[in-house]
Amino acid sequence: MKKIFIHLSDLHFRKNSEEEQGIVLNAFFKDLQKQFTPYDNSQIYLIFSGDFVQAGENKDLYMKFFDLFDMELNRIGISFNQRICVPGNHDVSQKYIENKYVEHEAVIAHNLSEIDFNNYIHNSPKIFTKKFFNYIDFEKRYAKFGISDSILIGKGWDVDENIGVYCLNTALFSSGGYKDINDKNRLVVETRNLNKWLFGTKTKIKILVMHHPLEWLNEWSQKELRKLIQSNFQLSLSGHVHDQSVFHSLNENSMLVECSAPPLLTNKCDNLGYSYITIDGARILDIQYRQWTKNHNFVTGVNFSNTDDGKVIINSSDIGTEDHRQDISEYLISRKNEALRSFSSQPIVWVEPVLSRTNYVSINNGDNSERYIDLSDFLLNPKSTIIKAPPQFGLTCLAYHIALKSWELNKFLWIYLDAKAIKSVLHLEKVIKRELKLLSVQIKDVHGIILDSWTNLEKDSLRLIKTLSDSYLNLPIIIMHTIDDSKFMKESPTETISRDFEVLFLMPLTRGHIRKVISAYNSERYIGDEDKIMMKVVTDLEVLNIHHTPLNCITLLKVSEKYFDESPVNRTKLLEMVLFLLFNTDEIPTYKTKPDLKDCEYILGKFCENLIKERRNYFSREEFSQELHVFCSEKLIDIEVDVVFDILYTNNIIISRDSQYSFRFAYWIYYFAAQRMHHDADFANYIMHEKNYAAYPEIIEFYTGIDRRRDDALNILILDIRKVCDEVYQKVGLKDGMNPFQFLKWSSSTENFEKMQVEIKENVLNSNLPTAVKDRHADISYDYSKPFDQGIHKILYEYSLLVLIQMIKASSRALRNSDYVNPTTKRELLTEIMRSSEQLSKVLFALTPLLASNSNAVFEGIHFMLHGNFGDTLDIRIKKILQSIPYNVVNIYNNDLFSPKIGPLLFEQIENETNELKKHELILMLIYNRPKNWKVHVKKYAESVPSNSFYLFNVLQTLTSEYSYSFASPVELNDMKFLIKMIFAKKQYGINKPRADKIIKIPNSVIPDRKVDD
C-alpha cells in the first residue's frame, strides 16, 4: 500500500513572530490539507528532522509548538501514531551546556574512536542526555517514533511489515550554538544499536532520519555511517543546511535516495518549503516539493526539484513493466494482510472462505456438492456478483483476497472501493481516480470493480450501484453486501439492480476451516495441543452463541494465548478478557502511564452513551479527547486519554475512516454502553424504560453479563415482552392452544392433512386478521401479487411482529447471562419467551398458504422465504411449510437463549410445560445444543409421544440432521445414534419404551453419514 512521508525540518519555532512564523505556518497547514485530501490519511506520515524550536532550553516554546502542530495535524488526520522526529542542534539547551561546559568539551576533545564512543555512551552519561530534557519531554507527547527516552542515541522502528525507520541522534556532541562553537566535523553517532536494528528488522524499505548531513560528522562517523546507509537504506533524510543548492541525490549504484529538507522557516523572504516522498510496496516512487512564494502561499516546488512539475521521479510506473507488476502484487498483499490483522500482536491467518450459492442448509444427502463454489473457478470467469454476509463475517478480507488472487492467477486487476468512503454518488469518480492513482494505472487497465461495505439501508445506496453499473458497463462488479443477521437466512438468491447479479453467501466456517485457522495460528504463536485448542474454541463459540467466523476464532485464540485454561461463559467476559490483554501489553511506552482497565471501561461508557443517544458512530480524535478529558475532570479520574485512544486504535477497535474515526464493530459501543448502564441509573433507565434496547439487544446481553444478577433488567423485560405479546395476541386473535400438529402424523393420510388445514382455516377465519389473509385461506388458489405483499407488511407493522422478535432476542440474551438472578424471575421470563414463540408460530400458520403459493414474501424489516424443494403441488408445499415451522421458530431465538448453564432451567420448563407445541420446541432446542443430561430428557419425551405422531417424526428428523451436520463430540454422536435407533425401535415394534434388546436389533444403516469435516 502506498505511503506518503512528509518531510519537514528547521522550523526554529519562536515567540512573538506572527508576522514571520505565523504567516508561513498558516499557509503551510492549509497547503497540507489541500495536498492530502484525496489520500487515505492513515497512510500519511510526517517526518520532522530536527530544530523544532529556536532555543532548546525554553520549555514554553515546545509547549506552544505542540499545541499548534498537534491540533492542526490531528485535524488533517496525521495522528500521534503517524509522526516521526529527531532532535537538531537548536533542540539542545545552551544553558545546560553553559553550566557543564568544561566537562562537555573535555569528553569531545578526547576524540573517542567508534568502539570507545559506543562503550562510553552506553553508560548513559548525563552530560550528553540532560541537554535534551525539554526536547525528550516534547517528543513523548508529540510523536510515536523518535530517539526514545533511554540514552537518546537513536532507535529503530518498524512502521509496518514493509517500511522501517531509524531515528538517529546526530546532535549528541552538539554544543547547541553556545559560544558560537561550530559543530561541523566534531559530531559523532552511535553505531552499535543501529547495527543491531539493521540485523533484526525484516522490512524491505529502510529510512534513516537524522538532523545533520554526513559532512557534519567526524571522520570515522562519516565513514561508518556512509557504508551502513549505502548498503542498508533506501532513503536517507536530513535537514540543517539552509543554503544548499541540491536537495536530493539519486545513487546510481544502489537504491539509495538522499534527501535534505529545505528549511520550513528561517525568515519569510528566504527559500522555504517542504517535500513529501511516495513509497509504494518496496519502492520509492517520487519526491514532490512545495515552496513558499512572495505571495505568502505554497506552490509547486520547481526551485527544489529542478523539474517543471516540482516532482522528482525515482521509479517510473507502467503496468507492462515487471517492476510495476511486482509493486501491484506487494500492494495487494500488504492491503490484505492489513485487513486480516484484528490485533496488533496477532499472526496473519487466512483460510479459504465458505462461499455458497444459497444460504439454505439442506439435510438431504447430495445437496452439498451443489451448494459450495470453488473460489478459484469463480475468479477465472468473473461475473457481476453480490456476496452477502452478516457483519464481521470477513467480507472486506474476502474483497482484498479476490483482488489479490485475480492478479496472481491471471493478472486481472480489480480496483477496490469502500462504499462508506463514498460520501455521495457525485463523489464516486473522485474515489475511483484516487484508487487508480494508488495503483499507478489507468481505467483501461482495470478488469473489474469491487464495492465493499455496501448496504441497501443507506441513503442513495441503490443509486450508487446504478451509477457504477451504468458508468462501467463492460466491467464486472462485485458487491460486498453487509446485511443484518436476522435477515441473512431470508435473503433472495437473485438480485437485479441495473444489471443481473449472481448472488453468493459467505457462510460460517465449517469445523474443518476452524481447524485450519487454529493450526495456522498455533504454528506462529504456540498455545497448546491442537485437538485441545480445537475443542475449546468450538465449545466457546457455542457457549457464547457467536458465529463461526475467522474474527471470532482469532479473538478466542488471542485470549487463549494467556488464558488457555479459562472458559468464558458470556461475551461480556470474553470482551473483558480481550481488553485486559490490550491494556496490559508491553507495547505501551514506558513513559506512558498504563491505564486501569476498569477506569477505561468507565469513561468509554460515557462516550458511547453519547454516541447512542445521538445515533451516530463517527467522531474525531479531538472530540474523543475533549469529551473524556472533561468527564475525567468531573469525576476526578487521572487517566491519559490519548493513551486509551492509541491502544484502541492500534488494535483496530477504533479505526480511521475518511478523516474521522469509528468503532470498527458496533458491539464495542454496546459493550461500553452496558458498562455505563451499570454505573449510571439515568442511562440504564433511558435504555430499559424507553424500550431502546429493542433496537440493539447486544446492550442487554452485555449489561446482564457484567455480574449475571441483573434482576432489574429481567423484571422490566418480563413486563415489556408480555405487553407486546398481548398486543399481538389481541390483534391477531388466534386462540391459545391452536395446534394443527395434532392432526399431522408420521405418515399422514389425506384425511389427516385436511383436518389440519381445517384447524388452521377455522382459526384464521374467526381471528382479527385482515380480510386479505382470511380470503387467502378461504380461496388459496387465488393468486395475489402486490396486494399480498402489502397485506403481510400490514400484519407485521400493525401487530408488532418485528418488535416481538427483537424483544424475544433481547430477553433470551438477558436470560442466558442471568445465572444468579432469582430463580422465580428466570422461570417467569422463560415462560414469556415461550409464550411469544407460540405467537410467532401462530402467525406462520396463518401465512402458510401465502408462502406456499408465492415462495417469497418481502416487506419492511423482515423476509419470509422458501429455500429448497417444497414440492410441486400447493398441498404438498403447505404440508412441508407447516412441518418446518417448529425448526424456524426455535432458530429465531435459539442462539440467543442457550448456554450450557441454562440446561436445568430448560429441563424444569419441559417437565412443567403442558402446551404440546411449546414443549416440542424446547425439546428441539435440547437436540440442537445438547447440554449435560440432554439425552435423558429427549429419551423421556420420545417415549411419551405417540409412535405415529408428527412430534416423534420431527424429533427423528432433527436428530438425523444434527448427526449429519453439527459439530458434535464422540459422546454426543453416540447419544444421537442411540436415540435414532430407539425411535426406530419404538416405531417398528410398537413399544413406547423399547428395551436394549430391541434397540440393538435396529441396523446401523438407519444412521446417516456425517457431512462435516471433523
Walk me through this protein's architecture.
The protein has 39 helices and 25 strands. The strands form five sheets. Strands 1, 2, 3, 10, 11, 12 and 13 form a seven-stranded mixed β-sheet that branches. Strands 14, 15, 16, 17, 18, 19 and 20 form a seven-stranded mixed β-sheet that branches. Helix 18 crosses helix 19, helix 31 packs parallel to helix 33 and helix 37 runs antiparallel to helix 38. It is an alpha/beta fold and 1014 residues long. Strand 6, helix 8 and strand 7 form a beta-alpha-beta unit.
Structural class: alpha/beta
Percentage of residues in helical conformation: 40-55%
Low-confidence stretches: 361-369, 748-799
Rg over CA atoms, rounded to whole Å, is 34 Å
Outline: elongated
Number of beta-strand segments? 25
Mean pLDDT over the full residue set? 82
What kind of sheet is the major sheet?
7 strands, mixed
Strand-residue proportion: 5-15%
End-to-end Cα distance, whole Å, is: 38 Å
Number of helices: 39
